[in-house]
């Protein structure tokens, strides 16, 4: 697209059509019309402000952003631009998580969930990583006009995965810089995520993780629930299901082999667990 107006119009259409990736494909000096009224973001979003400033509402709360700051929009958020300065320069990138949900790592998936469910989320800040984020956005822009084939699709998915990892790394760094009691609770939660990521295929009991963190199972589950809305057990089960889906969709492993991977007693036991969590048997999920 040669002109800014063409890119603005294309972004507007992409947002209205709910496309998997909605990008400004370069710098804009104004927001698209869709975002100037209440708009449900059916994906995760990034807005990098290069110059000027703007105000916006996110889930009915007012915020502002200025040059050098990045706005992070979590999944399924109600967004609206309220005002923008005449000298505004910004980049917009909104993408669906669903196409990469089966390949994102457990730590990233849980951290991303945490970003959405925090009671006091951070939506705007100067990360110091704006240029690196823009590089990812530029590389992804290049994939938008490639032919649809397996290689190009996988390249795009991996770039989206890389961008998601970068976002979570930024968020993790900000959390670890907190020196308050709340920050300490978050630190425990992050350590829990790391332990689950390392051991969820063998250890499904809360006691194992509580022991590793020198906490009682009851306290650890209460802490997890207060931070992200899920107990430790629920996080472990979500990790198993996410990896199970990836194995069903992306490998030729049979159900017994997948059951063995997660140390279930047999394929039937795994099938019952999987159906309870997803509403479908592993065989049904593989065929859909």
UniProtKB/TrEMBL annotation:
What does the record list as coiled-coil region(s)? none
* Gene3D superfamilies in alphabetical order: Homeodomain-like
**Entries under PROSITE patterns matching the protein:** HTH_ARAC_FAMILY_2 (PS01124)
Kindly list the GO molecular function terms attached to this UniProt entry: DNA-binding transcription factor activity; sequence-specific DNA binding
Record's keyword annotation contains Thylakoid = no
State the taxonomy lineage: Bacteria, Pseudomonadati, Bacteroidota, Bacteroidia, Bacteroidales
What is the protein name stated in its UniProt record?
Answer: AraC family transcriptional regulator
Q: Give the source's domain of life in one word.
A: Bacteria
Keywords (alphabetical) are: DNA-binding, Transcription, Transcription regulation
